[in-house]
């Protein structure tokens, strides 16, 4: 949950005349009192709220009741874009690197991470392919929960190879994106380039992180929104993702699943358990075509 949601709650408490303070905020959202105080300082300094502490009531009110919070609503799609940009800006190491890095930390503040900064320099522009964004999202989930990942990796002019990896960290080097991981087949740590990973499948198998990764020191904007598939699963999900893909419950085992890369998600459907792909129709058609092609190959029939 981001600090913006907490600030909206704090603002509402003030307007209801409840004189909230850092203790109230900390207890409501189960955060530290220090973090709650930083949220209040952000409301007063960055959002310029006319906060006034009333000793008699041991809480805050607005000195000018006409104050209105700026528009803070952000969709999940916009958060995903900001997460990608925050990752790229935090690892930028060229002209005006320190200023650009501060922008990365500032963007992280709006994506549930607590960093801040300001900058006035011109920013670089990064291009983002949907598959690259999808790989970063899935690998980030696997790194956070220490989950083994199956990848299809293809070097230039070589055949694709299926590998099992234990991902440790995402990084950027010379404007390329990489993941540091332990490769199970080769029994050693490797660095994989993200744009060479053709497919990512996050498994349910956890690994124990006993070593620190070694590797390089880590020092246009994506505009495409994710596709949404309505999928009825075989069992309820625990958490807000379906093996790395963001999922929103719609009731009765029906979930809205977000994805960027069509081929990767089709492969995920072929290797996962589910009951029904409800929508969209074009996804069902593509999945049916993929299944018919596989069936024809199994039967030794002509693809046409």
From TrEMBL:
Organism, scientific name: Paenibacillus plantiphilus
Sections of the chain in a coiled coil: none
PROSITE patterns from the UniProt entry: WYL
Name of this protein: WYL domain-containing protein
Domain of life: Bacteria
Pfam families: WYL
TM regions (residue ranges): none
Domain WYL, residue spans: 135-202
InterPro entries: CBASS_pafABC_assoc_protein, WYL_dom
Signal peptide location: none
